[in-house]
Fold DNA-directed RNA polymerase subunit epsilon.
Amino acid sequence: MTDSAVPPAADPRSSEPPERRDPRDVHAGPGDGSLGRIDAVKDERVRRWDVVTPSATLIGRPRHEHEDVSESLRRLHDEQHPAMAGHSERMHRLEKVRITHAFCNNLALTPWERDRALGIMADLDLTAFGSQRAIQRVALVVIRHVVDEERKRRLGLHDDEWVSERSPEELAALSERFESLTDDGQFRLLMDEHGLDVTAVNRLTRTLRDQLEEQALDGAVFGRSPYRDPSLPPIRTDPPAEDGESA
């Protein structure tokens, strides 16, 4: 006959009413740690409201729901406050750079082509493009212009004097080697997505060339100088001296 298991001794404190227990006692019985009905209802009603602290502030909203904001806040929201001067222009410039950068990454442009497109779009006034001045459309036209010009430069087609000395056979061979960005399948998809065709791109490119000359953006590069040799280390790190100052 085996010895029967001896049940563990019951904790004498578990039979005590909750109000008589020492608050420092730790219990692990059923229901221990849960709120009573009264405390649960109290907690539910209190949590219906937001947490309020002495340091809480309300910025940009009226103090009460039936009141209106102050005149200074209204001017701030309408960008008429001196602290918001130029905010819309800065946001428009950043939006042009952001969209153009996204297109450049999607089309796998070289870093130099990307910086050329960003440098033009960052300061380009889109008003001259009329009803086609949407940032996405102008950005695609700028990217096509930059990429095609760089590809022509690599082939030497940008030099009119050099081209005039080539034979018809050589020119035909160079034309076969040149590939416009409009022949790229991904660029075609972006054109279709934003309502552009080859005719519209060519027309907007003519407007772009005029604006690059009028706005002096033909050599614009985002964060670079177009004349610096990237293979050589920088000679000076301080900004160049102003006119009339000694170097």
User: Anything to note?
Assistant: Residues 135-155 form the longest helix (21 residues). The mean pLDDT is 76.
